[in-house]
Recover the amino acids of this structure.
């Protein structure tokens, strides 16, 4: 296995990560003592957040030292996580575990940890990676809710409002990340999100295929419902920087057949259409996260690409190919297209 030091690894990354972020990520990937990748067997608290299918997901587990007389005095003594995400997701998960264990927190005390606490622990995160800290805080909440149910703790009686039903109930607004209307509206209020880029930066909703941004009942409608169409946005929050504005998805067109003897498009036109979609829509989305791709070849309905930048070493490269690249080409060109990484 290739060994990476913090400085050498930082030079390979497209994002400007802090030294602490790079060190935590590198240590975790090398499995150094004191890191937290894994899953606790028979945990006292277990919580999940995110979408494995779309590349960002977090499973958070913890074990407590029980107080037999008072569950509220249980102390978290061990934390672990499994995350399907990028450098920021792994570093933010490590930060969450470190904060809890170093402070010897109870589950209820751990709920006071915010996404900003995680960002501060890492000495900052790139603007477009703030959602990784939110993912950790949400998984922690789900794990504490699980602990409370097992220990018979009434969180509502303590004035603690956790919403586990939001992940299972309510209309799905963002299908890419399976985020419901109740959850998105709550995060809009909690994090003072005022624009669609705010939402995408904080919780990723609308940041993949973008079809939910302006659809009926979509993100803009939820913003209008929460804040009112005539409300004047306050100054931008420094806690949740805005994403760069991404290109609007191309309008859907009738899919041509790839039986070129019976269609209007020639093989040349077919390949140019794919190239145009990749260059004008797919590649800008990958470049937003420090990645890229190169079109290598097209043979019938097989599209061969090479991932570049952060995408080339990302654990979620397969999901990126299926859920962004291939899906876009299927919807816009032909549903039989298959994208193959070379």
């Amino acid at each position: 296995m290739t060994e990476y030091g913090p400085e050498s690894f930082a030079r390979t990354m497209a994002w400007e990560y802090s030294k602490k972020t790079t060190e935590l990520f590198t240590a975790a990937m090398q499995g150094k003592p004191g890191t937290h990748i894994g899953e606790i067997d028979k945990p006292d608290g277990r919580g999940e957040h995110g979408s494995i299918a779309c590349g960002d997901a977090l499973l958070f587990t913890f074990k407590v030292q029980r107080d037999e007389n008072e569950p509220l005095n249980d102390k978290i003594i061990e934390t672990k996580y499994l995350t399907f995400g990028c450098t920021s997701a792994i570093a933010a998960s490590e930060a969450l575990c470190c904060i809890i264990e170093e402070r010897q927190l109870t589950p209820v005390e751990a709920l006071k940890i915010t996404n900003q606490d995680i960002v501060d622990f890492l000495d900052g995160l790139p603007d477009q990676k703030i959602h990784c800290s939110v993912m950790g805080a949400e998984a922690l909440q789900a794990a504490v809710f699980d602990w409370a149910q097992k220990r018979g703790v009434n969180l509502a009686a303590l004035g603690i409002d956790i919403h586990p039903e939001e992940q299972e109930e309510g209309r799905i607004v963002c299908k890419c990340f399976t985020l419901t209307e109740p959850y998105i509206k709550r995060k809009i209020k909690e994090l003072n999100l005022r624009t669609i880029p705010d939402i995408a930066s904080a919780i990723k909703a609308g940041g993949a295929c973008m079809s939910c941004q302006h659809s009926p009942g979509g993100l803009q409608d939820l913003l209008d419902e929460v804040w009112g169409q005539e409300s004047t946005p306050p100054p931008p929050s420094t806690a949740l920087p805005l994403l760069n504005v991404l290109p609007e998805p191309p309008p859907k067109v009738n899919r041509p057949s790839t039986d070129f003897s019976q269609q209007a498009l020639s093989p040349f036109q077919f390949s140019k259409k794919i190239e145009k979609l990749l260059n004008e829509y797919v590649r800008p989305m990958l470049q937003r996260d420090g990645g890229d791709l190169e079109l290598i070849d097209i043979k019938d309905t097989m599209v061969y690409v090479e991932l570049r930048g952060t995408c080339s070493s990302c654990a979620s490269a397969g999901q990126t190919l299926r859920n962004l690249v291939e899906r876009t080409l299927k919807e816009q060109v032909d549903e039989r297209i298959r994208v193959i990484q070379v």
In short: Confidence is low (pLDDT under 50) at residues 1-14, 230-248, 255-262. The chain has three domains: 6-162, 165-227, 260-341. The chain has eleven helices and eight strands. Residues 165-227 form one domain.
